[in-house]
Amino acid sequence: MCCQFGNRTDLIRSHTRYRAFPKLRKHGHVNRQLARHLALAAIENGEPLAWFEQLYGQAESAGVSIVPWADLQPSPNLVSWLERERIDGTGRSALVVGCGLGDDAEELRRRGFDVTAFDISISAIALAAKRFTGTEVEYVAADLFHPPADWARGFDLVHEAYTLQVLPRGLRCKAMGQLASFIAPGGRMLLIARARDEAEDPGEMPWPVTRSELGTLQRVGLEELSFEDYFDAEKPPVRRFRVTYRRPAIVGRA
Ligand SMILES: C[S@@+](CC[C@H](N)C(=O)[O-])C[C@H]1O[C@@H](n2cnc3c(N)ncnc32)[C@H](O)[C@@H]1O
Questions:
Q1: 244 CA distance to ligand 1 centroid (A)?
Q2: Which atom number of ligand 1 is nearest to the Cα of residue 69?
Q3: Percentage helix, strand, coil, to 5, in the chain?
Q4: Closest ligand 1 atom, CA of 161?
Q5: C-alpha closest to that of 118 among 102, 103, 136
Q6: Whether 34 and 119 share a structural domain
Q7: 93-97 and 114-119: which strand pairing?
Q8: Residue 84 resides in a domain
Q9: Are residues 235 and 128 part of one domain?
Q10: Would 252 be classed as within a structural domain?
Q11: Which of 27, 105, 219, 231 is most exposed by smallest CB count within 10 Å?
Q12: What CATH number should be reported for the domain holding residue 81?
């Protein structure tokens, strides 16, 4: 149980005061206070996934700048991988996990994939659909922990960026099992997350992942194809893991 975050009344009192927060984005600096307060209060209430809809719901009226990860452009960590690997998605399917406002999903569609993108927040899905009117991406409100049955082993590429790191540690193992379950035989997953060493303090949300945590993905049957541990080009630079996995193809099938 994650209860080191202080008195619940204080948390609730402080996040109802969010309107008084200083500018939420100032000179490119992202203010994460509101998201952190909502996250901690949700965990305290025993509903660790509730805060995503609370945050995006408020963004529908207050503007998307209150969502700390809403850069309104595809992740450079995704784009540089797509470029370097010369990925062409023509004729292939992709599933975007925790798609938020949809920029990564649209990028994969531009590169030819037939894209399904989902998020637990119905408001995030509504915002994404509104931003990309006429999109060919299928946006779906769904929970990683209760996905539609027909997604099992259904996708050539699963793209997961930054969802694991906003889930409490207690949910990550199950989350990774779910991520793996979406990959078709012979298909791949690209996973991008904030990174830390085992002994390093996870600090505040987003809580970076460790390499040993990611070991779960191999235990559930995936092969690790590549593992990058690097600092990205953000200011200040952020340490990331960018990892690709593959589900072995079924041998003996014609
Ligand atoms: C840190 S954000 C990253 C969003 C997006 N991938 C991006 O890079 O902008 C994590 C996203 O995961 C979504 N999420 C969290 N838990 C989820 C779950 N159980 N099922 C589906 N989406 C979830 C959140 O609503 C949020 O949009």
A1: 19
A2: 9
A3: 35, 25, 40
A4: 6
A5: 102
A6: no
A7: parallel
A8: yes
A9: yes
A10: no
A11: 27
A12: 3.40.50.150
Report the separation in Å between the CA atom of 27 and the middle of ligand 1, taken as the mean of its atom positions: 25
pLDDT in tens, 25-47: 443 445 799 999 999 999 999 99
Dump pLDDT digits (tens) for 17-30.
333 334 444 434 45
> 149: burial class by Cβ within 10 Å (0-12, 13-18, 19+)?
exposed
* C-alpha 167 to ligand 1 mean position (Å): 9
Strand order in the sheet with 114-119: 138-141, 114-119, 93-97, 155-161, 183-194, 239-246, 223-231
Residue 12 has pLDDT above 80, yes or no: no
Q: What is the pLDDT of residues 109-124, one digit of tens each?
A: 999 999 999 999 999 9
Tokens of 142: 């769904």
Alpha helices, DSSP H, located in the chain: 8-16, 33-44, 50-62, 76-84, 103-110, 122-131, 169-181, 211-219
Q: pTM for the full model?
A: 0.90
Residue 204 belongs to what domain range? Answer: 76-246
* CA 254 – ligand 1 centroid, Å: 37
Residue 134 tokens read as: 């006429």
CA distance 183 to 85: 19
- Both tokens of 44, joined, read 């305290």
In terms of residues, how long is the chain?
254
Residue ending a domain, among 23, 45, 66, is 66
Q: How many structural domains comprise the chain?
A: 2
Q: How far apart are CA 200 and CA 101, in angstroms?
A: 31
Pair (52, 91) in one structural domain:
no
Tokens matching residue 172: 């990550």
Task: Report yes or no on 146 lying in a domain.
Answer: yes
C-alpha 28/C-alpha 211 separation (Å) is 30
